[in-house]
Amino acid sequence: MAQLHIYKQLLILFILVALFCFNHVDSSSYNQEELNWLDDKDDEINMFHNKQPSLQTCDLTKGKWILDQTYPLYSANCPYLSSAVTCRKNGRPDSDYEKWRWKPYGCSIPRFNALDFLGRMRKRRVMLVGDSIMRNQWESLVCLVQSVIPNNRKTVIYNGPVMAFLALDFEMSIEFCWAPLLVELRKGPGSKRILDLNSIEENAKYWRGVDVLVFDSAHWWTHSDKWSSWDFVMEGQNVYRSMNPTAAYEKGLMTWAKWIDLNLDPRKNRVIFRSASPRHNRDNGWKCYNQREPLEKFSRPHVPEQLLILQKVLRKMAFPVHFQDITAMSALRRDGHPSIYARFSGENGNLQLKDQSSDCSHWCLPGVPDTWNEILNVML
């Protein structure tokens, strides 16, 4: 009995020593992620967030542009920018268009953090699908992240209509896929362009296996007269010389929607459809020339018909597509387009307006698409 009593005492002593050592273990043995949960700053952050309206309940589309001297978020010398959007290099004399930050009423959009974004997208493929304005946004997103990656750990590769920026250490990619109409536009007899409203696989085969897909499709549907995007429209076995562009747009979107519903899994894939980027082409294309500040508001806000059609199609889908509305906020930024600075103007900077075209569709970078990507970051 005495031996049993001594054994029990030793057992109790062992347990007490073990508990003491557990509570005083060297914190370096913990994973850094676990230690972050114990950081006192977490409580401060939570308290701050509890006082702010949730970004999920905040309407990010309503707000105003504020001049912020801590912007832009990356250098205008980013090596991934195409020459047509490097407005400062092309001779634009002002730079405030790089420094306007979108401030929604009632909340703030978190400043883009490249390492945080790359960490959350680790081992994932992010693909932006659409036209040249979507490429505008792709260049912005690549420039937002590339500066934190060593030169020998990043590269760009090409595959058909896809160009992909690879962040090798994160095993992730940011890709752009050229598909301005989403459905297929192909060459027919006599090099005539045939828009097939029921066919999409030639484009969609590049979307398979992608984790995050961001789409836009608008501008190519509105081209008309000599700038029309197609010569004939095909629906089923029927071929038409012309079709109302709005009706064609809805039919093309329905084909896209069916493909998404049949081929993607909401548990594995995230799909976002971005609304149309506004153009400022009125007054013979010079509406954006020499503009230096955003508009404060619209006297009569215009809702594009395409936007209503897009929302109608999205409501009918089984797959939960997230809608990103950038149209109204961007429409205030008539100062953000390249205008005549879409090309290098030469040493003396003399510009003959009658000899220059004015690009009031695309955007200077750094600039407006950076805000689209800050909102995209929130949505992801």
From TrEMBL:
Domain Trichome birefringence-like C-terminal: 109-377
Membrane topology term: Single-pass membrane protein
Residues annotated as signal peptide: 1-27
Localisation per UniProt entry: Membrane
Keyword set, alphabetical order: Membrane, Signal, Signal-anchor, Transmembrane, Transmembrane helix
Segments forming domain Trichome birefringence-like N-terminal: 57-108
Protein name, as recorded: TRICHOME BIREFRINGENCE-LIKE 36
